[in-house]
Design goal:
Layout (H helix, E strand, L loop, with lengths): L1 H17 L16 H6 L2 E4 L3 E5 L2 H7 L4 H9 L3 E4 L4 E8 L4 E6 L6 E4 L3 E2 L13 H4 L7 H14 L3
Antiparallel strand pairs: 1-4, 1-7, 2-3, 4-5, 5-6
């Protein structure tokens, strides 16, 4: 029993080091940028699981009222978007008065609104145990001209619209 508790304690201590803001290299992220650099550029990780994003702030207010009928109607009409824990987003606009942020997600072409409290500046592992980064999600940093140029070249070479 004591050995089991010791093992659990040691595993817990190893996880404490992973949750630090600059723990990305220990999590397998090796692009040379730290989590602090990503946060300074507006990147955050999603902390909630559910339909907590919408194209308009009003949709987010409606969907977070969390009645089953409201949630169902917003998802059926395509106005509600599901957020998944560990997903990397980039904040494009911050509405501090309402506590909301407009974010970009990889694979979704239009910006979405969600509550800022659903986003974390600390890296969070996704469902596969991986910490998402701009390199793995398809979010291109407009300030990084080399990455933006290579993304445009790949898009042009592949014949994709």
């Amino acid at each position: 029993m004591k050995i089991t508790m010791l093992v659990i304690y040691l595993v817990g201590l190893s996880w404490v080091d992973i949750t630090r803001a600059d723990g990305l290299p220990k999590m397998g992220y090796t692009s040379g940028r730290s989590a602090k650099d990503l946060v300074a550029k507006g990147y955050r990780w999603v902390t909630v699981d559910g339909p907590y994003a919408g194209a308009k702030q009003q949709e987010v207010r409606q969907i977070t009222s969390r009645t089953d009928l409201t949630e169902l109607s917003l998802v059926e009409t395509g106005d509600g978007y599901y957020l998944i824990p560990g997903t990397l987003v980039r904040i494009t606009q911050d509405d501090r008065v309402n506590g909301m942020s407009e974010v970009l997600l990889g694979g979704i072409t239009k910006p979405l609104w969600t509550y800022t409290r659903f986003l974390s500046a600390r890296p969070i592992r996704d469902a596969y145990g991986i910490v998402e980064t701009p390199d793995t999600t398809g979010l291109v940093d407009p300030g990084d001209t080399a990455t933006a140029a290579s993304a445009l070249n790949e898009r042009g070479a592949g014949g994709a619209p």
